[in-house]
Amino acid sequence: MSRLPLRRVFSRIFPAGLGAIFAAAACLATFAAPAVAESPKENAKGAACVPATFRVMLDVGHTTAVPGALSARGVPEYSFNMQLTDAIKQALVEAGFDQTIKLITTAPPWRGLLERAVRANNAHADLFIAIHHDAVPDALAETWEYEGKKQQYSDRFSGYSIFVSNDNGDRAGSLAFGHLLGQELQKQGLHYTPHYTLPIMKRYRHDLIDSEAGVYRYDHLVVLRYTHMPAVLLEAGSIVNRQEELDLGTPERRQAIAKAVTAAITDFCAARAKDGVQQAKETTSNRAATVAPHWRARRRI
After folding, report:
1. Nearest-CA neighbor of 299 among 20, 5, 13?
2. Which domain CATH number covers 126?
3. Residue 269 covered by a domain
4. Residue 192 — φ and ψ, nearest 5°?
């Protein structure tokens, strides 16, 4: 078969000529471009926080069998943790966070701690918060008598503290939420305790990585290290401080903390939605950048 020039082949197949072909291609590109460009607008519809789809895991620290620290008046930490978790969950549900989960385990430490992380990961939680109440090392405790029984206390320190792990699956998210939470707790008139930075804490000493919000680094905490989502541990206050123990036992303090947690989660949820839209825009922009060269390449046929 004899070979015809490429231009003559096209002219036989497309009598209208190459100019018409390229015009049609440009037209198709014009119609194709809006389909790519519209996706950010579609994503923008979900830019606001949607509480009903944002899953929060509230981990009740300790168990009935291993109840944690004893307060200055002999009340187990687990009791404080449970009451505060209930208050936080109620506030979140009222704010529309219907998928909030209260996590309770009965397994002993290590196995139980790993179970908490596994359950949070399997539930595909968007945020994990471990709820605890603070104490001090035995070496810093003093003894007093309350209702005929000797108890340990320390009035030297008071305030909340927030912990994150650099080994968490979403370290940046953990830091961001920790900062928001600390800010909201301070808006409720609360303050963080600086005593974890002091040499007297010895092996319990931790780096303060956010001095504005009261966020400490604690890499090896199992529930923070092995969770895939942003995760923080909140020490709501010191139950071995005799005055703060009384405050922490009131509905008013629990409601103040619950309000702070809810506000922080709402802001965090909104920030995550905004980040998702931004990522979608960047992806769309990258796709659009590949469309134009594609059509330009065809015009060089």
Report:
1. 20
2. 3.40.630.40
3. yes
4. -95, 155
In this predicted structure, the answer to whether residue 292 has a pLDDT above a threshold of 80 is no
Q: Are 30 and 288 a contacting pair, CB within 8 Å?
A: no
pLDDT band at 157 (very low <50, low <70, confident <90, very high): very high
What is the domain count for the chain? 1
Averaged pLDDT, 241-263 = 98
Residue 301 domain-assigned (yes or no): no
Residue 215: both structure tokens together? 């966020």
- Is residue 125 assigned to a domain? yes
Residue 146, strand partner residues: 149
- Overall residue count recorded for the chain in this entry: 301
Q: What does the DSSP 8-state code read for residue 126? A: S
Contact 169, 227 (CB under 8 A): yes
Residue 81 belongs to some domain of the structure: yes
* pLDDT digits 0-9 by tens, 185-232: 999 999 999 999 999 999 999 999 999 999 999 999 999 999 999 999
Place of tokens 């100019």: 19
65 φ, ψ (degrees, to nearest 5):
-80, -35
Range of the domain at 116: 51-273
Model-wide pTM > 0.70: yes
Q: Is the pLDDT of residue 275 over 60?
A: yes
Answer whether 83's CB lies under 8 Å from 189's CB: no
